[in-house]
Amino acid sequence: MGGDSGPGVVVPGALDAAREMGLSLILVGDETMLRGELSRSDTSGLDVEVIHTTQVAEMTDKPSDVLRRKKDSSIQVACRLVKEGRADGVVSAGHSGASVACGMFVIGRVKGVLRPAFAGVLPTVKKPMVLLDVGANVDSKPEHLFQFGILGEVLARDVLGFAQPRVGLLSIGEEEGKGNSLVKETFDRLKASSLRFVGNVEGRDVFTGDVDVVVCDGFVGNVALKLSEGLASSMAKVLKRELMSSWLGKIGTFLAKGRLRSFARFVDYAEYGGAPLLGLAGIVIVCHGASNPKAISSAVKMAGRFVESGANDHIKKALDKHKGLGG
């Protein structure tokens, strides 16, 4: 029910993903609105259930208030379905704080996970990479960052399909010993693990495609994510302005429109859908409020791949293997 466009975007996007991957859907929210959207779509051959709720987590609501006072909000009911085993994951374009709160306190964590982490899937010059944490934890300890490396490695392998993900640690220099005390101690833990740890990664190297998972605390990760999004948006605007400033530029734009479309897809968040909150007993993916149907479809497909690959079981095994390093 959340997001800028509500069911008008969520329903067609979810149906597209279900059709492509053979997923079952539970649409949670106002039944009249949801069935109205379903009536405008082809649902033949799809397994779609509608569960009616009477409340919505508004953007003005505090996450704690949603937990305590909006028991019948669509996000809390959706998370409860996962807790009860009736669903495997949740995709939401609504109130991100409420989504995180309900995920953590209704669904709960995977046994052994100290803190769930938001993972951003970002484009690079070679292939997508995982940056985490990008905002769930603004005060982290070395054992938390170490576990973020495990969570990101499983996402990169099970969902993105990288056979042996390379894990790096975001720092102010490539050399061992660079960074603050948090980074230095995390470095030692990652180095001692069985992860394919490639060492420190500077900010300028994040988008080279030479590392598949970059670990950082949520404060740094959120700044890096927002800076990257802002830079991509600004570059696109500058490029358009320069290309349209002369007749020669306009002709060049016409001739290169195919390549420009490829560039637009490269920087489009809709290609990756949303940010998964890793470490929960069921996957929760939080999408942009301005998500279009394509973004919702990408997020639902990501959730489907996460569940079908058995990613949470792999997280549990990796945590057990590294008990002495990750808390």
What order do the helices and strands come in, and which of them pair?
Blueprint: H1 7-21, E1 25-29, H2 31-39, E2 48-52, H3 63-69, H4 74-83, E3 89-92, H5 96-107, E4 117-122, E5 129-132, H6 142-158, E6 166-170, H7 181-191, E7 196-201, E8 213-215, H8 218-243, H9 247-255, H10 257-266, E9 274-278, E10 283-287, H11 293-308, H12 311-321
Parallel strand pairs: 1-2, 3-10, 5-8, 6-7, 6-8
Antiparallel strand pairs: 4-5, 4-9, 9-10
Helix pairs in contact: 1-2, 1-11, 3-5, 4-5, 6-7, 6-12
Roughly how much helix do the residues carry, as a percent range?
Answer: 40-55%
Name the helix and strand elements from N-terminus to C-terminus, one letter apiece: HEHEHHEHEEHEHEEHHHEEHH
- According to CATH, what is the topology of the domain at 117-270 and 313-321? Isopropylmalate Dehydrogenase
Helix and strand content put the structural class at: alpha/beta
Shape type: globular
Q: How large is the radius of gyration?
A: 20 Å
Strand content: 5-15%
